[in-house]
Structure formats: structure tokens, C-alpha cells
Amino acid sequence: MIKLVKKAIPVVAAAGMFLNIYAVARADVLRAPGGGTVRVVVIGVNHYSNLGEGAQLRGAAPDALDIAAALEKDGVHTVPILDGQVTRQRIVDAMNDLIKNSKKGDLAIISYAGHGMQTPEYPRWKGLSRSGASEQIALSNFSFAGNGAGEIIVNIEMRAWLSKLDAKGVDTVLVMDSCFGGGMRGVDPRSGELRVREVKGAGDAAEREKFTGIPMTDKEARADVALMPHVTFLSGATSNSVVPEMSGLPKDPSHPRGALSYYVARALEGGASVGGVVTRKSLFQFVLQNVRQATNGRQAVDIVPRSADPEILGKQIFVFGEPSAPPSVATSAPPSVATSPPTSVATSPPTSVATSPPTSVATSPPPSVATSAPTSAATSPPTSVATSPPTLPPIAAPNPSEIADAVHLAIVNGEADAWSTIEKGRAPLVAAPDRSGADLVWDVGKHEALARGDLVMQRVDGSMIGDIADRTWAIRRLRAISQSRVLLVGLASGGSLLTPGDQASATAEDLHGEHLTAFNIAADGTVQMLYPSAPGEQRVCPDPQGDRWSCGLEVEPPFGADTIVALATSKVPTDFVAWLKAHHAKRDAALIPAELGRVLDDDPSARLGFAGVFTNSTREIEKERP
What values do phi and psi take at 282, rounded to 5? Predict the structure, then answer.
């Protein structure tokens, strides 16, 4: 559980880095901002023929198919390269063709989903890496020794290709949905397996000695992606994080996927566009926050360039036009590649993961409806702005007889009649066939609830399961309705597991004078006001300072999961604040999506973001692997 600290943590105002409003455009035809041809190379590898079962992926090929389908909708013919088609020779040929055929004003989109890995430096490029390590992607026939040891693309090779494209004035977007090291919050194996897109191991030293790589100049080998004005790069992980395959994503909830590829595909459908244009700013904000929310803070996307310069971040990446104009079509659909090292860490405001207030554990959920008068929220004047509101999914309080998105529960370590002890809440609840497809896992013997690798709540019996399911359902709906209206909400500690004595700072970025409302959804579905504070609350979060809000929180038992939700609006959301006051400390999480849906409908410029904080008595779980 998280509670407010007694003394507010000092807040430093930060300059806004990202655009803050999204209007979903109909992505009829994707055009190159420079007026040239759109050329694509899309690849996904699930099956690694020379590696064991544990190294086989499940979502990488579907990621490539999803991006290809989004491009097809945009009028760009795309043939993704999948599994056994992905060989080194084919990738080298494809990239050489891409460079040869591309000209100034073209747009090249290169995406890769599959395993990455980190090895000692190659002799040819010794001294070019500050860390003394090389990063590379593993292709479908990769093996640690023998002929398959050369089935890789090394990051320096990819940098050289990008350098050649940049020199020709080709706008290039590179998406690398893989990881090369780092770690993440521990995965509790009771909730099922969570696969990571990284191959562990250095490979054969003798093979590295023989490896020569593609032809390149010394200048190209030393090229810095951050200094390439035409290149926009998104990597699935920073040097301190990894890429998990996560289920529960809105359009494909039952299958593991890569969150970065998933949201890039949504951006290609127009989800990140402002007036039919996607800039670096809008793409970065859309992807960063949505990936954080989808992975519960386990994944931190890296971006290049990282800059606060409006000219750099305002660069147009995708332009959507009317279908009457002839679409730009890729001349070939070679396999994509990729591996450029995640460069640097942002100096501007964090995009990321969250923190949460106290997880309370009441024993019975009072029903209740708001009757109290409105409470004013922020002190700064409203900033309006909106363009046309995005089309939102239909929002309504859950009714088991009317909605299909039930929460799937698996029961372990208990008697066969455990299901009969469950007191259901408002959200529909059904039995999951196994843990891998479950939204929730109830460990009856240990009295704990888990979800996708994390402890959600302790001291759980059948009477609490319905409330925990309501919380799970509500967060799923918030993920859907906030997708194109994202507000950057984060936690200074990133996605780390927090233990007693830890303090964290929950943040909301780029408020631009908007009114802020923040609250917590506790593990048992209890709603808890944060800002403005609940009536009679002695510990309060401070007012926003400049464009940034921060609230200090600390850990105490009982442990589990909390979710901080922040809403930025152009005017005080009077009715919603009144609703929060009336429902404070009540287990009414399942009602929140409908209430927030009304706010978003009423205020087209309103933005919404959330992030989860996970606490436990020890960090020992972080040593376990799925």
C-alpha cells in the first residue's frame, strides 16, 4: 500500500517536451512528409530453429503482421518477412536495396520484432562501444556456435545503414521491438510465464573473430543516430529495461504481443496524429505512455532523438492524406532489421510509470451514489484548446449480461470448490482455462491475488475476488479510453518493486495550465482521492508547479498493486470531483470508466494517464525469472 508522505517532496518545474492533444485522424493514405515514396521493411521472428523451446516467441510475428496490416490500410502495400524467411543474407540484400532505391524526400519505415542480445565487442569494431559490449539481433537460424553464429545483425551495421539513408535525405523511422540487456521487476511464476525478447549468452568467441560485417567507412561505423536529422528511432527497451511479451492489449487481449509494435501500428492507423500529421512529439508521447500503461511499468521505451528543441521534436514523421491522391507504395518488402543501440537517457521530463496511494482493504463494498457538491481542483486558469474529439469506445458501467470483456480468473493451490466461495462484483468474471491466459490468478493457499507476474493483493479470500476483478476490469477500460488522449503520468522510481521505507514521487507532466484531478485505484477496487485531497485528509498533495505536478508517497503494508490515475482538463471537472468525493474510500472502481468517459466527451482537450505501483515486503521476487 502507498500513503502520502508527511512532507511534500520539492517540485521542480520542467519545460514541456511533448504535444498534449490528440485528434484521431482517418489514416486513408500514408504519405512521406518530403513528398517521395513510402518504402517499408517489416520483420517478425517467433520461431528460432536452433534454440530451445524457452527461446521461442509468441508475439513477434503477429507484431509484424499488425504493422503490415496498418500500412495496407494506409495504402502502402507491405509483405512482412516472417520466421524462417529471416536470414542474414536476405536482410543485407533488403537493406542494400532500400538504400539503393531510396531518394531524398522518401520515407523508409523499418520494423523488427524478435530477440536481441548483447555480446563482447567484435574485433573489427573494438573500442567503438563505451560499455565494451556489442548489441545485435538474432535471426531465425541463429545458434551460439557453428554456421548459425553469423545469423545476426550487429548494431554498428544498422547504424551504418541508417547513416547512408540519412546522407541521402531519406526520412527513416526505425522500430526495434527487442532488448539487449537490462532487467525488470521480478515475475511471480504463479501467475504464468512472461517471455522476454532477449537471448542470453555471448556466443562463440572464435566466430566473433571471423565476423567481418558489411562494408562501411570508419565514419559510418562511428555514426551517432542522435545526430542524424532524418532518423527517428524507437527501441523497445532502454539499457535498464527489457521487452516482455504481454497479453491484454485492447485489440488482441488473449495473445502475447510486443507493446511497442502494437502501439506503432495504432499510430500508423492515425492514433497519434494531430490534424492528419504525426510529429516526433506526438509519436513519442503516444507510444511512451501507452506502452508503460500496457506493461504495468515493466517496459521503458527508448527514443532518439531525445531533445527539448521544438524544431527537432516538431519534425513531421507521417502525413495522412485523402485517398484521391495516388498512394506511395514500397518497391520491395524486404526483411527489416535493426539494432541500434538505445542511445542516451532523456534529460527532459520522465515519461513513465507510476505510483500509487494507499491500497485499502475494506471488508464490504458500500454501494453509493454521488450527492455532494462540487469541489474545485486546480488553481491555475483553464487552458482550452481542443480540436475535434477522438472517437472513443463505448463506455458504460459493466453489466455481466451485456458486456463480453469478462475478467478471466485462474485458481491455484486450492480446493475444487474455491470458485463457489467467490462473491462477484460488478464486472463479469469467468474461469480461465489456465494461468497463461488469466487476467487474475488467485492463490487460495497463500491468500494472494496475482496478475501478469505481479502481486496484486494479500490476505485475499473469496469475498474479495469480485472487488479485485472490478479493479482489473476498470484498468482495462481506462487503457482503451486513454489511448489517443494520453497524459504523461509517471513514478520517479520507474517500474521498480517498492518495499517498506521506500519513497516515490508520482508525477504528471506538461499540464500547460490545465486543471489536474488525481486519484488512486487500490487493489481491492477502492477509490481514493489524491488531488484535490479528500475532505478531512491531513496529508495532501501540493499544487502543480509550472507544467508539472508531483506528489510524494511512501510504502507501508498491506502490499500489492495500486494505480495512480491523473486527468488534465481545460476546466474544473466539477461533476467528476463531486463524484470522487462521494465515492472516496468505497470499492467503486468499476464505475470509474463511465464517469471518466463523460468527462472526455464533455471536454475534447481532456487527457488521461495512469501508472501502476507495485509493493512487497521484499525484493526477493526480482531474482526469479519466468
Answer: -70, -35
